[in-house]
Amino acid sequence: MQTEPSTATASRAARPGTPAAQGEKPANARSRAQATAQVPTAGQRVGEPLLPVPPDAESTDRQFAINLARGLQVLRAFTPAEPMLGNRELADRTGLPKATISRLTYTLTLLGYLNRSEKYQRYRLGAGVLTLGYPMLAAMQVRQIARPYMEKLARETRCTVNLGMRDRLNVVYVDTCRPGRDNNAQPDIGSTRPLLATSIGRALLIAESAKERAAVLNRLRLSDPERYALDRDIWEADRAAFAERGFTLSRGDWLRDIHAIAVPVRQPPDEERIALNCTVVSRRLADDWLERTVAPLLLEAALRIERACGVTDASAAGIG
């Protein structure tokens, strides 16, 4: 198994658009990010300056479809931990009036996006939600391109290998390769992770433009100040280290027993930012195993995926 960084490792660590390539000092980058953090205006969700105006009655954006946004709020309220919710619980989670919730759940049920359990008098997500997600996944060419490299990486490292993209303040996995049942880190496609507390989330933030990154960090800070205060030092340290090593690293930052290493995967302009990670349960780890053994293989896989997508150092000069 490869143990020394390859030429690809050095190439990725100093690729265009990263702090390493720009000679940017972390302290200066942090100052600029703070200076460009935007204060939301009337009608905007706190901390979300670059994202659409939220579904509230005070919105001045006439293009914003409030009823549609409220329906999507209802769908987003369901989680793996709480797959069945009643109207009262949905009202509590969305902040919407119960009468509004009743109309929305009735409509979403007729359209097939919710199913109602007569036994429990509650709702669960319907098959219509899945039909919305499949075309998006099927159209992501990078998933098909990355798959053989992810499978090879999973075999070589015995890690679970995941491909993720940002969904507002979270990471959502769009593909995953599982090496075997001996690794408990086995997420599903569509499962989410927090941004700052995970290596893949931090890799995605590093891949963003400075303007978008400042906006996301601002929203994280204002939406959950306590969580942001806990994660900020980890983010700053990992970002600074990325400039030297070309990857982000989590030693149980989100879940104590799950360690992970991640890299951004550059894409052509106008494509979604994506990142690749390797995750493993901590009981299987030697002290520097991720950095010494897994990192070179992960960096090599990411570089090969980029090249297969048509991204080279020259073509990526304006990305990020």
Automatic annotation (TrEMBL):
<protein>
    <submittedName>
        <fullName>IclR family transcriptional regulator</fullName>
    </submittedName>
</protein>
<feature type="region of interest" description="Disordered">
    <location>
        <begin position="1"/>
        <end position="58"/>
    </location>
</feature>
<feature type="domain" description="HTH iclR-type">
    <location>
        <begin position="65"/>
        <end position="127"/>
    </location>
</feature>
<feature type="domain" description="IclR-ED">
    <location>
        <begin position="128"/>
        <end position="311"/>
    </location>
</feature>
<dbReference type="Pfam" id="PF01614">
    <property type="entry name" value="IclR_C"/>
</dbReference>
<dbReference type="InterPro" id="IPR029016">
    <property type="entry name" value="GAF-like_dom_sf"/>
</dbReference>
<dbReference type="GO" id="GO:0045892">
    <property type="term" value="P:negative regulation of DNA-templated transcription"/>
</dbReference>
<feature type="compositionally biased region" description="Polar residues">
    <location>
        <begin position="1"/>
        <end position="10"/>
    </location>
</feature>
<keyword id="KW-0805">Transcription regulation</keyword>
<dbReference type="GO" id="GO:0003700">
    <property type="term" value="F:DNA-binding transcription factor activity"/>
</dbReference>
<dbReference type="InterPro" id="IPR036390">
    <property type="entry name" value="WH_DNA-bd_sf"/>
</dbReference>
<dbReference type="InterPro" id="IPR050707">
    <property type="entry name" value="HTH_MetabolicPath_Reg"/>
</dbReference>
<keyword id="KW-0238">DNA-binding</keyword>
<dbReference type="InterPro" id="IPR036388">
    <property type="entry name" value="WH-like_DNA-bd_sf"/>
</dbReference>
<dbReference type="InterPro" id="IPR014757">
    <property type="entry name" value="Tscrpt_reg_IclR_C"/>
</dbReference>
<dbReference type="Pfam" id="PF09339">
    <property type="entry name" value="HTH_IclR"/>
</dbReference>
<dbReference type="InterPro" id="IPR005471">
    <property type="entry name" value="Tscrpt_reg_IclR_N"/>
</dbReference>
<dbReference type="GO" id="GO:0003677">
    <property type="term" value="F:DNA binding"/>
</dbReference>
<feature type="compositionally biased region" description="Polar residues">
    <location>
        <begin position="31"/>
        <end position="41"/>
    </location>
</feature>
<keyword id="KW-0804">Transcription</keyword>
